[in-house]
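Hi U.,

Before I forget, here's the chain from the pilot set. I'm dumping it here mostly so it's searchable later in email.
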Amino acid sequence: MLTGTCHCGNLHWSFDGTPDSATACNCTLCRRYGVLWIYDWEGEKVTTSGTSSYYRWGDGGIEFHFCPSCGNVGWWRGHEPHPDGRTRIAVNVRLSEPDTVGQIPIRHFDGLNTFTDLPSDGRCVADMWA
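Structure:
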C-alpha cells in the first residue's frame, strides 16, 4: 500500500497496490503544480481523507484538490461519475516518501496539445528527486 500526505498532515491518500507508472502531464495546471499522478477509481484502489479545497478548471470536468492550510495538491477527481457510476481519481505521488515510490517509472503525457503519450526518457520517480 502506498500513502501520501500534505506538508501539514491534513490531507492523506492511500493507493492499494503498485501502479505501473506515474504520469507527468504538461498541461497548464499539472506542469505548474509539479505533480506526478497515479490513477484508479475513488473508493476502489484509492482512498482520500482530510479537509480539502478544490479548483475546477476549463469545462469543470476535473477538480484539483489541495490543502487549504499548506497548499499542497493532493489529488484530482472527476467532477461527474463515469456512466458506470465510478469516479476517476489520481493522487499526487510526490506526497509519498521517496523510498516507497522511487522505482515507479514515469510516463509523460501531452495534456497540453495532443492528449497522447510522449516518448519516455526511462526515468523513475527517484530520478526526479535526485
